[in-house]
Design a protein that fits this description.
The complex is a heterodimer. By secondary structure, chain A is an alpha+beta fold. Chain A has helices at 2-12, 43-52, 101-112, 155-160, 169-175, 226-235, 246-252, 283-292, 295-302, 333-342, 365-377, 390-398, 419-424, 444-455, 459-476, and strands spanning 23-28, 57-59, 66-68, 71-76, 82-87, 133-140, 143-148, 189-195, 199-204, 217-222, 240-242, 258-264, 267-273, 307-309, 349-356, 381-388, 407-413, 479-492, 495-496, 499-500, 506-507, 512-513. In chain A, a hairpin with a 6-residue loop joins strand 2 (57-59) and strand 3 (66-68). In chain A, helix 8 packs antiparallel against helix 10 (333-342) and helix 14 runs antiparallel to helix 15. Chain B has a single domain (88-310), classed as MetI-like fold (Orthogonal Bundle), CATH 1.10.3720.10. Classes of the chains: A alpha+beta, B mainly alpha.
């Protein structure tokens, strides 16, 4: 080994090389798929996109409430059907072309209209976010009007989602199908290059309409192996790492030379229960299972506090819609056994849980499944685990749970409290009708609440409807809700201005390195565990 | 010889046809599909059906295979659905790094392996032989991905002498050969040590045989120096015998490169293939496997030809 290493080090120098002070290197979990915000659905890609692009609106810092961005202001008609935006006049795209109302129209028509000359640059998986639009009108150069077919309250927050980021029409026309590798937006950073498997490099956009970015360059590096991500962070090859495993986050907390940022977001991890066949059709059995699971221990011991206990079907990050009075089911094996006996299952029962091996937002699926298996064993339930690779898992669960599967793990990250219930809890959202209601839950009262809430443009009234929905779902138990993920970033000391948003986006415009950044001290002992997730 | 080479090259076509048929079939049997991978969590059956039709996934796989084959003949490997770009571009871009990694590991593994094998044979049944054998056993037994992690921990994290992963320094403006060399050391070491172990083990046996062969005895009788006997005559014979083994090692190195490229974030074909399989990106898998299979067949052909060149008594069959 030394035979190989020593000559190379002598020839090339053997000092630890760290990124320069004006460059921020971010260790990501995967190579991005595309830098076209209308084409990709991956959170990993969103984290780059929100630094390159802006939408008409964005989330107010620290919240999930829309505030002006490329639009200076907006008005919503009383019937909730017309949204009129006044656009900023001082904005240019990175490629030099001007931002105006026609550019906005181009963006939405490219996604929605199969006859649009640039529609072939898709597919556009999130185009349905804007299904409610009937027409887009341009009364003057800096005004745009969206006319909706029906009142649709999530419209503004959908515009703040990456699917609503505005791309340069000139760049799309120029690059066509290759646009996703030559992105051009209006954000604080502009694109420099993308070396496959190695880096995406951005640099400060000098003509940015707002305050210029704090660092000259940002480099996103895909470091897919979680252990290598830890090693790179310790070796100084990256300044910050995203999505480390619970054990590694725990090891970095309070460690000299590093800072751990954590924040819960609009994420929900839950078990889907089969209400069409098997013993879980009985609500008493569903309640018993919920009471049998020790959520606090799951979050503390398995997830090492990288998540928080969630009480209801609306994540607490939607603070205006989630019910603060609702509490998660307590851990009560006694009561669980009593309920099971009452349901005639006092002698115990066998159930099957489907488990993915990984997957977006799934946290630690296998470890969580075995912990749940142990909890249920204590109330006489024998849980059989069936695990699948993520892609195969989605295909199976999205088809709906059949007689061979009683429960399945699932996690969603959404931008509006409407999304998850309307896609996964309505009667009409069953898998055979194109929805994600894989457990076949159906309660007309819940449907009515979901429908009313999505038409209600007054936020206070809308929030009240979601709180009622939460109560209903809590009683019916179509799911066993476990927790909400806390997104984590582990950064080397000396990186300031990092902010974790409830949206889970990584906004880097204010990030900068101060003094210590370069001289983070070398690591002398291997106390950070590098356990494979 | 030219006729033989031509025949072997012609054999490439049925081999590649077989390989791609198997890949196509297996990928079609695996649950999950690229339409689902593209649409992500919001994949509704209607959208899936639409996209499947666009991607021609609704047709039976033998029909798609024939279409793919027709395009291939025209040099078109199709478009990758997960990368949103032509398969050929993506594969060629990743081929260079893999060749560099596997080629360096093969060369270093061969040199180390032959040297260790020869040394053990020369000191047959003495303590050096036993030490080499223990070293070889370690080399063969240590999984390369585990070795890779230990090397990262030691040389990148604790000592800080070498970079932990990647092929170049991402914040550097230009790529320098010295920089790539620094990044190459650890992944090559993890791969080469295993290859060296296998080569040394078989090489030792071959060297014992060769050293006892008549022409070596003849050389000694003619008073040729021991150095010359070992380094020229014996080594040539051992190398000739070892060529097929070395050729076969290419297969293990390509397989090992899949792990090693993942651990070291090496931007090569192995990593591309892993991602492509997870995304059910059939055409990309197909393109990558095709290139790797071609490389494997060519390296083995080269090994056979080299064997013949080193020892004229061995006629390629």
């Amino acid at each position: 080994m030394l035979l190989l290493t020593v000559p190379v080090m002598l020839a090339t120098g053997c000092s630890r090389s760290l990124p320069p002070a004006d460059t921020l290197v971010v260790g990501q979990v995967a190579e991005p798929r595309s830098l076209d915000p209308h084409v990709t659905t991956a959170l990993n890609d969103f984290r780059i996109l929100v630094n390159l692009y802006e939408g008409l609106v964005r989330y107010r810092p620290g919240t999930l409430e829309p505030m002006p961005a490329l639009a200076q202001s907006w008005q919503i008609s009383d019937d909730g059907l017309v949204y009129r935006f006044r656009l900023r006049r001082d904005v240019r795209f990175h490629d030099g072309s001007a931002f105006d109302a026609e550019a906005v129209r181009f963006n939405f028509e490219r996604m929605r209209d199969p006859a649009h000359p640039q529609h072939h640059t898709g597919p556009f998986p999130l185009a349905f976010f804007f299904d409610a639009i009937e027409a887009i009108e341009v009364p003057d150069r800096f005004t745009v009007r969206f006319v909706l077919e029906r009142p649709y309250a999530p419209f503004l927050s959908n515009l703040a989602y990456p699917a609503g980021l505005i791309v340069s029409p000139a760049a799309v026309r120029r690059w066509g199908d290759d646009y996703g590798r030559h992105p051009s937006g209006t954000g604080p950073f502009r694109f420099v290059d993308w070396q496959a498997g190695q880096r995406v490099k951005l640099t400060r956009f000098e003509r940015y309409r707002g305050e210029p970015a704090g660092v000259e360059r940002v480099i996103f590096r895909p470091v897919t192996d979680p252990m290598t991500r830890v090693a790179e962070l310790m070796a100084g090859g990256i300044d910050l790492a995203l999505e480390l495993s619970p054990d590694n986050v725990a090891a970095f907390r309070g460690r000299d030379g590093f800072r751990v940022l954590e924040r819960a977001g609009p994420h929900l991890w839950f078990l889907i229960l089969n209400q069409r066949s098997g013993p879980l059709r009985d609500v008493r059995v569903r309640r018993a299972l919920s009471l049998a699971i020790d959520r606090a221990s799951l979050i503390r011991d398995v997830l090492r506090d990288t998540a928080v206990v969630a009480a209801g079907a609306v994540p607490a990050a939607f603070d205006w819609a989630s019910d603060p009075a609702l509490t998660a089911d307590p851990h009560d094996p006694e009561e669980a056994r009593r309920l099971l006996a009452e349901a005639g299952l006092g002698d115990g029962l066998d159930l099957t849980l489907l488990v993915p091996r990984g997957g977006s937002g799934m946290l630690a699926p296998l470890a969580m499944a075995t912990a749940i298996q142990g909890d249920l064993a204590r109330v006489g339930v024998t849980l059989r685990l069936e695990s699948f690779e993520w892609n195969a898992y989605l295909a199976k669960v999205n088809d709906g749970l059949d007689a061979n599967a009683d429960m399945a793990q699932m996690a969603w990250m959404t931008n509006d409290p409407d999304t998850l219930p309307s896609l996964a809890l309505r009667c009409d959202a069953s898998p055979d009708q194109g929805g994600f209601n894989s457990g076949w839950y159906c309660n007309p009262d819940a449907d009515a609440l979901i429908e009313r809430a999505r038409r209600e443009t007054d936020r206070t009234a809308r929030g009240a409807l979601y709180r009622r929905l939460e109560g209903l779902v809590h009683a019916d138990k179509p799911w066993i809700v476990i927790g909400s993920w806390r997104q984590n970033i582990v950064a080397r000391a000396g990186i300031e201005g990092l902010r974790l948003e409830p949206s889970f986006y990584l906004l880097l415009e204010r990030a900068r390195k101060v003094g210590a950044g370069r001289s983070a001290r070398p690591i002398s002992s291997p106390t950070v565990s590098v356990a494979r997730r | 010889m030219i006729g033989y080479t031509g025949r072997r090259l012609l054999l490439l076509f049925p081999v590649l046809l077989g390989v791609s048929l198997v890949v196509f079939g297996v990928m079609s049997l695996v649950p999950g599909d690229p339409a689902l991978a593209i649409l992500g969590p919001y994949a509704t059956p209607e959208r899936l059906a639409e996209l499947r039709a666009d991607l021609a996934l609704d047709r039976p796989w033998p029909a798609r295979f024939v279409i793919w084959l027709g395009n291939l003949v025209q040099g078109d490997l199709g478009r990758s659905v997960s990368l949103e770009r032509p398969v050929l571009d993506a594969v060629l871009e990743r081929l260079g790094p893999t060749l560099l990694l596997a080629g360096s590991a093969l060369s270093i593994g061969t040199v180390l392996g032959l040297a260790a094998g020869m040394l053990a044979a020369l000191r047959h049944n003495r303590s050096t032989d036993r030490m080499v054998s223990i070293g070889v056993l370690l080399g063969i037994s240590i999984p390369s991905f585990w070795l890779g992690l230990l090397l990262i921990l030691l040389f990148a994290v604790w000592l800080g002498w070498l970079p932990a992963s990647g092929m170049t320094t991402v914040w550097a403006d230009a790529v320098s050969p010295a920089d790539v060399l620094r990044h190459l050391v650890l992944p090559v070491a993890s791969l080469a040590l295993v290859a060296a172990g296998v080569i040394a083990r078989i090489g030792r046996g071959a060297a014992i045989d060769v050293l006892a062969a008549e022409h070596i005895v003849m050389c000694r009788a003619r008073g040729i120096t021991e150095h010359r006997i070992v380094l020229v005559h014996a080594l040539k014979g051992v190398a000739a015998r070892m060529m097929p083994v070395i050729g076969l090692q290419t297969g293990f190195l390509i397989g090992g490169a899949v792990y090693i490229e993942t651990i070291f974030q090496w931007p090569g074909l192995g990593r591309l293939l892993v991602d492509a399989i997870a995304a059910r990106d059939l055409l990309l898998v197909q393109g990558g496997v095709l290139v790797l299979a071609t490389a494997y067949v060519l390296v083995n052909l080269a090994a056979d030809l080299l064997q013949h060149a080193l020892d004229r008594r061995i006629r390629p069959a």
